[in-house]
Design goal:
Keywords: Membrane, Transmembrane, Transmembrane helix. It is found in: Membrane. InterPro entries: GDT1-like. Belongs to the GDT1 family. By secondary structure, this protein is mainly alpha-helical. The chain has one domain (4-68, 86-159). Helix content is 81%, strand content 0%. It has eight helices and no strands. The protein has helices at 4-17, 19-31, 34-59, 65-85, 99-112, 116-126, 130-158, 161-183. The radius of gyration is 16 Å and the shape is globular. 45% of the residues are buried.
Length: 187
């Protein structure tokens, strides 16, 4: 249960600033079906997070506690770099003619594989309780996708998420460096 809350918080912060939420808002406006698009996006995020948790169950027995801490540190540092550098809008998927559910499901699933949340889920899952980490990240991702779908693209783009992205990037960088220094026993 201890992995649920950190995974929820990391996913909520990162999803607010990541491209899948904007894509969810774009698709909800395009199809006029925000609930359908939000559910599809939530399922896509859940699939990515549970795949990451499944991979962690195979990796964790081979890792030392310091290696697990170092993986979390690297996830936070790369997450910080991704937060500071992710300003480009996602593809609008205009050519996709699969309907609101499948377009959102496949589009968000493909887009989320390159984002930070599954990497955080993988890193947290190696520390133990991978299914709780996946559940926490999935719940937070669905909540953000739901809000993005209901608000729509115009409101989502106008939200002051740039500062949240910068502040979260700084916080992730500091936390990642701190955990990494401790994992390498440099303190």
């Amino acid at each position: 249960m201890e992995a649920l809350v950190p995974a929820f918080l990391l996913a909520a912060i990162t999803q607010l600033c990541d491209k899948p939420a904007l894509l969810t808002a774009i698709l909800a406006d395009r199809y006029g079906r925000p609930l359908t698009v939000a559910v599809a996006a939530g399922l896509a995020h859940a699939a990515g997070n549970f795949i990451a948790a499944g991979a962690a169950t195979f990796m964790a027995p081979m890792m030392t506690p310091n290696a697990k801490s170092l993986l979390l540190a690297l996830a936070l540092i790369f997450g910080a770099l991704g937060a500071i550098g992710s300003g480009k809008a996602p593809d609008r998927l205009s050519g996709w003619k699969l309907g609101s559910f499948l377009t959102a499901l496949l589009g968000v699933l493909i887009l989320s594989f390159g984002e930070r949340t599954p990497f955080f889920t993988l890193a947290l899952s190696t520390g133990g309780q991978p299914w709780f980490a996946a559940a926490g990240a999935s719940i937070a991702s669905f909540a953000v996708a739901f809000v993005a779908a209901v608000l729509g693209e115009r409101v989502w783009r106008d939200a002051p998420l740039r500062w949240l992205r910068i502040l979260s990037g700084i916080a992730f960088l500091v936390a990642g460096c701190w955990i990494g220094v401790n994992a390498l026993r440099l303190t």
